[in-house]
Amino acid sequence: MKDILSIPFNNRILHCGPINSKNAVLEQIKGVRYSLDEFLGPKSDCTLYQCVIYLAPGDYHRFHSPVEWSPTVRRHFPGRLLSVRPNIAGRLPGLYTINERVVYLGEWDHGLMSFAAVGAFGVGNIHVNIDPTLITNKKEDNALQKGDELGCFRLGSTVVLVFEAPTNKLKWCVKPGQRVKLV
What we know:
Elements: E1 11-18, E2 25-29, E3 32-35, H1 36-40, E4 48-55, E5 62-64, E6 70-77, H2 86-89, H3 95-98, E7 101-108, E8 111-118, E9 126-128, E10 149-153, E11 157-164, E12 179-180
Antiparallel strand pairs: 1-4, 1-12, 2-3, 4-11, 5-10, 6-7, 7-8, 8-11, 9-10
């Protein structure tokens, strides 16, 4: 399972690990949780993992594909634009379900892949290269290679990855709180 998933943008990891399959709850930050159903839509029955990635205002704000995959569905959730700074996220349960977000769902070699761009205070729009209008799902081939630029934020925000991977074979090379830089 070496190097199957990368996080090719400047960020700080807030949380990474398996999703509790019994109650389908995602970890927001340090014990603050929110419902997978509220965040992505209908529940999946597969083994899922998550990685919550914070982009600070001074970080590189283009986000890239973490794997080779094909997004097939886009869900746009209009919402607020509250700050996603870790000290705020740690006190406001459900923050990522309150804020505007765009979620792309598709398939990669190991099953489901979901990439969610969550808006934040000062981030009035989220630009996604494969879907510049964000009006309807595109029928054309939107296959992405690992590292392809997917889109950008105007200021700091959050990316949430939810994905299926082989059970007990996923090894995290990052820890919560760790800074990751694009080189």
